[in-house]
Amino acid sequence: MKRLEWMLDELEGWLLPFCAIAALIIGIVGVGRFLRLDEANSVLIAGHSAARIFEYLRNDNNLPLYYLLLHAWTRIEGTSEPAVHLLSVVFYFLGAAATYLLGLEVSGSRRGAVYSSFFYVVSLQAIHQAQKARMYSLLGFVAALSTLFFFRVLWRKTATRSDWLVYVLIHAIGTFVHVWYFFVLLAHAVCGLIFQPGKWRSLATALVASVLPFLALWARFVPHQAEIGAVDWMPHIHLSAFLTVFAEFYGGRKWGLVFLLAVFGICIAGFKKRESESMPYRPIAALVSIAVLCTVVPLFVSVVRPIYWPGRYTMVALPAFAATLGCLLAALGNSKLRAPFAYGVLLLILGFHIRTRTEVFENSSNVFPDAQSDKAISAEICQNAAPGDALVFTGLARAGVEYYLQRFGCAQKLQLFSVPADTDQHLGWARAPSAPETESEADRIAKSFLQGHQKHNRPWLIPAENREPDRILLTNVFDRELGTGTPILVRGSFFDEVLVYNHNSDSLMPAANGTH
Fold it and tell me: Least CB-packed of 2, 164, 272, 435 within 10 Å?
C-alpha cells in the first residue's frame, strides 16, 4: 500500500512537466493546418498599416489589439500557416501558466496549481484555439491573468499598489481584445461585492480606471459596430446551451459531459470531511461565480440579441473554470484515481490531436478536413489563370482564397471582385444585397469582359454555397452575357463550385476543369 502511495505521489510530482511536454506537442503538431475564412481574414487585416487596421475594424465587430500584435508578429515571422498559428500557441502556453498561478493563489497548494493548469491544457476548446489565427487564445490568457490579480488584490492582506496597478493594466488590455471581455469586468465586480464587500470601493475604482482607455479611444465606434450586421449570422441560442456550455470546454455535449462527470465522480469518491474542512470555500465559490457569470450572462443576452457561438468567446471563462476543477480535484479527489485519470486524459488528448492534425475544428460539432480547404482551388487558379483574369466572389467565399493567392504569389496578376462590392471592406461578414443590386453589379462586371483589353480575360465566378439567390442571379447574368461557364467541382471554406467563363476563343489560356 505504501509503495502504491509513493508511486501515485511520484506521478503527481511529474504531472506538471508532463503537461508542459503535452502542451508543446499540441502546439507543434498540426501547426501548419490550413486557414479558414476568419483566420485568413485576420492575416489580411494584419497585413495593413496600423492606421488601416483601425479603419478596417471600425467597420467590423472586432477590437484592435490582437490584429496589432499579429501585424508585428508577421512582419518578423511571415504569413505562412505555421507562422501565424504560433502566436496563438504562445498565448496557449501563457494561459496555462497563468492558470497554474491562479490555482496556486486560490488553493495555496502546488497540487491545486498543477491540476488547474492540467484542466487548461487538456481543454479541447483551448487546444483548437491554440492553432487558430484568432484572438481567442489571447483572450483566455488575459482572462486568466486578470482573475489571478483579482484574487491577489482582494484576498491577500498585503496587496500592494503595484498589484492594483497591474490589475488595472490587464483589464485595460483585455477591453481591446474582444467585447466578451467586458463580462469578466462584470463578473469581478459582482464577485467582489459578494465575497469581499470591504474592498469593493477600491475594486470599483480599479474597474472604472480599467475602462477609461477604451472609453477614450474606441467606445465612440461601438454603436456603429453594433448596427452594421457583423453578427447577424449568429443563430438564437437553444435552451440546451445553458446546460452544455461548460461541456464545450472538454469536447461538447457528449464527451465533455462524460469528462466532467468523471471529474466530479473522482471528487465524490475521495471526499473526506476532515480534509474538506480546510478547503478554501469562499475563493473557490468566487471562481465558480466568475466562470458562471462569464458564460450565463452572455447566454441570457443572446436570447434577445445573439452574441454566442460555441467554442470561441467562452474562453474568457475557461481559466476560472479550469482552476475550479483543479482546486476541487486536488482537495477532494480520490488520491488513487486523480493522477491515473490525469495521465490517461493527457494520453487520449495527445492521440486525438495527432490523429486530427490536418483537420480544423470550429467547435465540438463543426470539423473541416483538408479536402475542404481553399488551398487546392487557389493553387489551381494560380496555375491556370492568365494575367488579368478576374475572380468574382459572393458571400464569404473570398478571404480564404485571397490569402492563399497571396501565399502562392499570384494575387497581383488577378482582379478580385466582391458582390456586393462593399464586402471588400469587411471580408469576415457578408451583407445580403437586394436582387436588383446583385443583378446590376453582375451585369456591370460581366459586360466589362466584352470590351477593350478585358476581352481576352476570363472571369472565374466563385459563389458562396449558402447564398443560393445570389448564385442564381449571378450565373443567369454571366451565362447570358458570356455563355455558359465551365464548372470546376471543388469545396472550399464557403463554396462548392467554381464557374470559369471562357467566353473568347482567343483566350490566353484554356479553361481549367476537373474535380477534387
Answer: 2
